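Figure 3 (text version): structure tokens given as input.
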């Protein structure tokens, strides 16, 4: 049974509409949670285990909206969650981390989502444009230091946005990779300083695509030509039959995650 009372957060929050003062860092200080709050979240996660994703989202909206947000790369899982939010609470602030390296098909999907659900996914961008960033680093940094590239163009941007919210939703699933196998439904995300909610944690790839097909949810056409997982175009390739669904991400390197979902537990 989900508990009604939550320990108070120990750090004051600001909304995403507030701009940092002149000369201030573009990345806000990351908040922390008390042991009591972390324990309470663990109990909520256990209580929500086995619940429908729609019910998990409804719980999150009831508890955290309007300080509840969603970051999405517009993958299949994100599109499914958006379709649910459109029915539960379409005013939830949904945004995409626009690195400047996204496939055109991904950006076009954003418009199709808006036309279908009336929800315009905001684009949150790094401080530097791609030409400025590559000029600063003497060329494309993703070729020699993809970890730094992902941090600068994704992780730091999410840290900036997260400062205005109490909780965020993600589309990660436990069966996507070994690094995601223990994903709880609800937890404190220490990397970004807010509650992290994964309504599709217990779903499989088959569950996601069944919902997309059953409801005609818009999705990226690259999924039909061998791209089960899509990130930035320089670091994503089509996968071969029998490969893991994330094998096309940072292929040929030891890197398996962009950093958004590592080190947050």
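Below: residues designed for each position.
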């Amino acid at each position: 049974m989900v508990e009604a009372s939550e320990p108070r957060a120990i750090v004051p929050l600001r909304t995403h509409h507030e701009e940092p003062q002149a000369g201030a860092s573009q990345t806000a200080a990351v908040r922390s949670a008390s042991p009591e709050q972390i324990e309470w979240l663990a109990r909520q996660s256990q209580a929500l285990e086995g619940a429908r994703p729609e019910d998990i989202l409804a719980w999150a909206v009831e508890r955290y909206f309007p300080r509840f947000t969603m970051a999405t790369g517009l993958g299949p899982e994100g599109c499914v969650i958006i379709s649910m939010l459109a029915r539960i609470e379409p005013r939830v602030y949904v945004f995409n981390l626009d690195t400047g390296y996204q496939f055109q098909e991904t950006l076009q999907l954003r418009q199709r989502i808006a036309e279908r659900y009336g929800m315009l996914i905001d684009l949150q961008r790094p401080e530097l444009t791609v030409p400025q960033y590559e000029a600063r680093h003497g060329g494309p940094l993703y070729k020699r230091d993809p970890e730094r590239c992902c941090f600068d163009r994704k992780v730091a941007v999410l840290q900036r946005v997260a400062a205005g919210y109490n909780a965020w939703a993600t589309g990660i699933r436990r069966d996507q990779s070994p690094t995601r196998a223990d994903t709880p439904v609800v937890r404190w995300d220490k990397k970004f300083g807010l509650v992290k909610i994964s309504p599709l944690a217990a779903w499989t790839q088959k569950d996601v695509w069944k919902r997309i097909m059953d409801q005609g949810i818009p999705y990226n056409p690259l999924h039909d030509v061998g791209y089960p997982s899509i990130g930035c175009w320089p670091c994503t390739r089509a996968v071969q039959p029998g490969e893991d669904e994330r094998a096309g991400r940072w292929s040929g390197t030891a890197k398996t995650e962009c950093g958004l979902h590592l080190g947050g537990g």
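The first strand starts at residue 68 and ends at 71.
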